[in-house]
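Suppose a colleague, Dr. K., hands you the sequence of a protein chain of 176 amino acids and asks what its three-dimensional shape might be. Before reaching for any lab equipment, you can write down a predicted structure in token form. Begin with the sequence itself:
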Amino acid sequence: MRQLERARPTIAYTPEDGRSFFAELAPDFTLIPQQGDDLGARLANSFAQCFAAGYTSVLAIDSDTPTLPRAFLQQAVDLIALPQTHVVVGPTEDGGYYLIGLRTLHREFFDNMAWSTAAVVPETKRRAEAMGLKITWLPAWFDIDTAEDLQRLRAMLLQTSAAEPRHTQQFFLEYR
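The predicted structure, expressed as tokens, is then:
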């Protein structure tokens, strides 16, 4: 995140009393508490806080895609900055998304969504079309939701000498 151009990294953290942990972990990031009873409410409220703080475009990125290429994130930053871009979505292979970007808060994307199902991306697309918004798509990637996904990640990281994600790779090297 720190290497992205034209981005101001922010962590939407939980639990509310966890601020000091994240402040120590990422002292150069803006911190906002997650608020809401479910993922949709937390996402909508995080977007609302960012827009209220003066951001003109906001990207929400998941925390379970440790091998997500930085180029995908930079592409999202570049795309959401364009006035003609309404929504940017980075789909996951399982039907969800690893990233959603908006230039304006549209709570409709987050209300009554069947989170953690293969219906998320199709429903997001349907809602965008109903609002007359065009989605700009990023390449698909995989996230870590199951034991099989974790094994895939482990195999990938143990077969490469790449430095990213270095902490996750180090974990797998230490706990073979």
